[in-house]
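Predict fold of Phosphoribosyl-ATP pyrophosphohydrolase; 151 aa.
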Amino acid sequence: MSNVFADRHQFMQRFGLEVPLEPSHAPAALALWETMLHEEWQEFQEALAAYRTSRPGAEREVAMAELTAEGVDLLNVISSLLLSQGLPVEEMFAEIHAANLRKRVNGQVIRRPDGKILKPEGWQAADKLGVIRRARQMPAPGDATPASPDA
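Predicted 3D structure, encoded as tokens:
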């Protein structure tokens, strides 16, 4: 399976799109990718609607192809938006994934009637802020070393 984030990083470098080495706030890049995100979300919604109402056979196959392609485009744009801000997407994905896997305890899964997996009692959320701080190489509150003032 392909690493979406690494592949997108390669794309951005090849086309001269900046990918900061650590979390930063890049307003111009953010504006570009946010505009593209709105466009791609609309296209994905249209493909989803067509898929939902497609008839079996060739029409469904075309709808599947369009839904998949628009979903991949959406993943690409979201990944690029995050990478353009120097955000640690691979590390955050791993942290969120590990937290999601902790929703199964002793082989038990709690679900809502619609099938959504719920958090069990005592579930521990992902350390999202920790991921960002590690990426910025910032100490946690209370540590002796102060963060750089321009960070």
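Residues 92-136 form one domain.
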